[in-house]
Design goal:
The complex is a heterotrimer of chains A (336), B (290) and C (255). With 336 residues, chain A is mostly helical. Helix content of chain A is 71%, strand content 6%. Chain B has a single domain, classed as Orthogonal Bundle (ABC transporter involved in vitamin B12 uptake, BtuC), CATH 1.10.3470. Classes of the chains: A mainly alpha (336), B mainly alpha (290), C alpha/beta (255).
Chain lengths: 336, 290, 255
């Protein structure tokens, strides 16, 4: 008596195909819950600030920031560009915002958008020559650029040098502090998902999967890659821009390796290419890292271990696993 | 001033070349990602230190054991980790990079960060060349470095294993059909590259202290030299090291020591703008990817 | 007198690290012709296609298309000028449905220009295109996911991908390889119809019987050199061609 594992779609999933999804509350709930629940939770969490305490609200902000960085990483990965230096976008956005506020005394309502766009533009320009070359080459260059930019600032002492620029304008009030990253995260999450499912996103994924075929389809792949980097860059730079005003400080740590490794780990853990996966990964890893704060730098070793295990053992990530469990069930079936 | 610049420029260039070679052997020449390179470099330094200070090994033995262990570690890394993701460039890079970061941060957490962590010179003393005092350590760096470059060139062009290394990068299927065991060759390549990292570490680290951030810098240097010279080319490494080495020393002397790192950034940006595949690299982008 | 040749390759050569893949090949193509490229395995047929379409840069020689020098230009630029090609190793986007596979060429600026500045309804255009290459619309075949389609359909999907570009020159690289007899029999009329309607076509093929039925002219490659150029009947009578495919008489005698 031999058995094999069989996976079948759940009944409710089959009933949700096409128009039948509207047939009863259960089906509608089945479809809506995975989308509505997290959004509702995210929007409600800031309201609990007095219950949960300001410390955990800070964690929420940082989690959203890392999630945003992970999303921008994922968008670039969707076009085939693997970035080992997401800190580049973070730092660029952070410094432009800080500079505008410090030197020209522009208010956050102006500096943050300008920082996001400017940072994205600057990074895209910097990466333009490398887009043409093999993906691994791109990864290498992204690894080195944040480190080198930090050194450059340290050496030339511009933009505050090693001390950075401090005493920057604060954000208007606590609600802005909490809701801007949350809303930004949701906008990027749903925006990027929409983008990747549109025809434009198909072209991007085509470039990732089979760029020769896309080229022979009369598409200038480098222009599309540049566009993807720019859009992803807006998300990344926005994070840096916002955090600059949140901390009221910008300095060389804006290019720190943490901002490169953490989004990468979140994305790999959560599921590359799914956008929801990296966000989930962030919501697991960042609070976890707060809980393990006592271990200091050992946490980075921990991230490395997770990265290796996920890359080797669970390459599709958590999100795919969860989705599979949600839509399908398994049973053992007799063979022969 | 000039003789000093010439000599120290040469020393610096050879240091850069030594650092870049192991990485280029594995990644540029064999096509196997080795982003744990910085980690292995520092690891071999600490290994020698521990063998000398905890186990009281004689120096020669410590060196040999350390190189051996690191080489073995490279071999094992391939079989355990990289083998499972071979061919998926993304995963190779991430996995090996994570390993390097893990090693480095582990040492940092374990507290290996004070000034007492340094390696002894091979031989103390110095001689005068053209009125410039040069210590034996730096002389041996030059000697070992140049010997390594020649060895690497000869190895990859004239020995069976070396040619196999190049073979698996070019076209794996052809290599396999020629009887080259692709996985074993790749593992050997990783082992050799890591061993070269160890050799470089042992001669270079005595010049200063073993610091964790040096591990990241080493990867940076290896990558910068590779980008400027062309990742797969041995002459490229040599020329790139000479250029970067001398420009660094000149800016260090006439401007300020901190500017030396900026040279890498400028060089990378410049090369990417002019000839993105590196001075001696072949522009492979348009070639048919079969 | 203006040279009205549609496509002209002049003395193109390509060396791959010591192996001479293409050696001083020249040929010309008139508008509306269907040119076949044949030759034994390894004679360089696909390399020649790559040289014409920009995927490989020739070491020497020029490729002139409608009076423009396109030697070594980027593949997407050459595609934009109206040259579409199939790939021997078919690699569709497996997780997408068949018609979604066509979205990408339909997204190009060339298609937009040809349609008068608007992309139009890409999905419907894709379904129509697939119907033209024989995907049965009533059986919902165009909606099937690419990974579930048999090889013959995938090859026709390749053809549709090219046609989506509204090419002026269609280059088919071994389209019939891996197709069953019935699939070839149903695909051949499609190509014949395109040729009759005036589309200039180059076909690299191994299946000579089918090719000779529709080709106006054939060139033969052997070890990277062009050894014959003319109407199909004439080429097959050529001794050099026979020797290339079958081995020469002298060799047989010794064996």
């Amino acid at each position: 008596m031999k058995f094999r594992k069989e996976r079948l779609d759940r009944g409710i999933k089959a009933r949700c195909e096409d128009i039948f999804a509207l047939s009863s509350y259960r089906e509608i709930l089945y479809l809506a819950l995975p989308r509505v629940l997290p959004v509702a939770a995210l929007l409600i969490l800031p309201l609990l600030k007095d219950v949960v305490g300001l410390y955990w609200e800070k964690v929420l902000v940082i989690t959203c920031a890392i999630a945003l960085l992970s999303l921008s990483w994922d968008l670039m990965a969707s076009v085939g560009l693997i970035s080992l230096g997401q800190a580049l976008f973070f730092g660029a956005g952070a410094y432009i915002t800080g500079f505008l506020n410090y030197t020209f005394k522009l208010p956050p309502i102006l500096t943050i958008p300008l920082g996001s766009l400017g940072g994205a533009f600057f990074c895209t320009l910097l990466l333009l020559p490398v887009l043409r070359l093999r993906g691994v080459y791109f990864a290498i260059v992204t690894l080195t650029l944040p480190l080198l930019l930090a050194r450059f600032i340290e050496t030339t002492k511009i933009l505050g040098g090693t001390e950075g620029m401090s005493a920057l304008s604060p954000l208007p009030n606590i609600w802005v502090e909490l809701y801007v990253p949350v809303v930004g995260l949701l906008v990027c999450l749903f925006g990027f998902r929409r983008l990747i499912n549109e025809d434009y996103g198909l072209v991007l994924q085509g470039i990732r999967d089979n760029d020769r075929a896309v080229m022979s389809g009369a598409i200038n792949i480098n222009m599309f890659k540049a566009q993807a980097v720019f859009i992803a860059g807006i998300g990344g730079a926005f994070t840096g821009a916002f955090m600059t005003h949140y901390y009221r400080f910008v300095g060389m740590p804006a290019f720190a390796m943490d901002y490169s490794i953490l989004p990468l780990t979140c994305a790999v853990l959560g599921g590359v290419g799914t956008f929801a996966g990296p966000a989930i990964g962030a919501f697991i890893l960042v609070p976890l890292s707060e809980v393990l704060r006592a271990f200091g730098t050992l946490r980075v070793v921990f991230y490395s271990a997770i990265l290796i295990i996920c890359v080797v053992g669970l390459p599709e990530g958590i999100f795919h696993y969860i989705r599979r469990k949600y839509h399908q069930f398994e049973r053992m079936v007799e063979v022969g | 001033m000039l003789p000093s610049i010439i000599i120290y420029g040469l020393v610096n260039s050879v240091i850069l070349a030594l650092i870049a070679m192991g990485f280029s052997l594995t990644f540029g020449i064999s096509g196997v990602a080795n982003f744990a390179y910085g980690g292995f470099y520092i690891l071999s330094g600490y290994l020698v230190w521990m063998l000398l200070n905890y186990l009281k090994f004689p120096f020669i033995l410590a060196i040999i054991v350390s190189i051996g262990i690191v080489g073995l570690l490279g071999f094992v890394t391939y079989w355990l980790i990289l083998l499972r993701v071979r061919g998926i460039a993304l995963s190779e890079v991430i996995a090996s990079f994570a390993l390097g970061v893990g090693i480095l941060e582990l040492f940092r957490w374990m507290g290996f960060v004070t000034y007492e962590f340094n390696l002894p010179y091979l031989k103390k003393g110095m001689i005068l060349i053209g009125g410039v005092p040069v210590d034996y350590q730096r002389l041996s760096i030059i000697g070992i470095g140049l010997a390594s470059v020649l060895f690497l060139y000869f190895f990859t062009h004239h020995t069976r294993i070396g040619l196999a290394f190049r073979g698996i990068a070019q076209n794996e299927r052809t290599a396999i059909s020629l009887g080259i065991k692709s996985d074993r060759t790749a593992a050997l390549s990783l082992a050799f590259g890591s061993a070269m990292a160890a050799v470089a570490a042992i001669v270079i680290l005595p010049l200063g202290i073993i610091s964790i951030n040096l591990g990241y810098e080493v990867l940076l240097i290896a990558v910068a030299v590779g980008i400027v010279g062309g990742l797969e080319s041995v002459p490229g490494i040599l020329v790139a090291s000479l250029i970067l080495g001398y420009v660094q020393v000149i800016t260090g002397t006439y401007l300020a020591p901190e500017w030396m790192m900026v040279v890498y950034l400028a060089a990378i940006v410049l090369i990417l703008a002019i000839k993105p595949s590196g001075l001696f690299g072949k522009f492979k982008e348009l070639e048919e990817r079969v | 007198m203006e040279d009205k040749t549609f496509l002209k390759a002049e003395e193109v050569s390509k060396n791959f690290g010591g192996v001479a893949a293409i050696v001083r090949v020249s040929f010309s193509l008139q508008e509306g012709e269907l040119l076949g490229i044949i030759g034994p395995n390894g004679s360089g047929k696909t390399t020649l296609v790559n040289l014409l379409t920009g995927f490989v840069k020739p070491d020497s020689g020029t490729v002139i298309y409608r009076g423009r020098n396109i030697t070594g230009k980027m593949p997407y630029k050459i595609a934009e000028l109206g040259i579409a090609r199939t790939f021997q190793m078919v690699k569709p986007f497996y997780q997408l449905s068949a018609f979604k596979n066509l979205i990408i060429p339909l997204y190009s600026s060339r298609v937009k220009k040809l349609r008068g500045g608007k992309y139009g309804d890409r999905d419907n255009v894709a379904i129509d295109l697939l119907e033209d290459v024989g995907f049965e619309r009533d059986s919902f075949v165009p909606y099937k996911v690419a990974s579930s389609l048999p090889h013959g359909y995938l090859k026709r999907l390749e053809l549709a991908r090219c046609l989506a570009l509204r090419p002026d020159l269609l280059i088919l690289d071994e389209l019939f390889s891996g197709m069953s007899m019935s699939e070839v029999a149903s695909t051949l009329p499609i190509i014949e119809k395109l040729s009759v309607e005036g589309l200039t076509i180059i076909m690299v093929e191994h299946r000579l019987k089918e090719l000779f039925r529709i080709a106006h002219r054939v060139i033969v490659l052997n070890f990277g050199c062009k050894i014959a150029d003319g109407p199909p009947r004439q080429v097959m009578e050529n001794d050099a061609v026979k020797a290339a495919y079958l081995g020469s008489e002298d060799e047989d005698r010794d064996a």
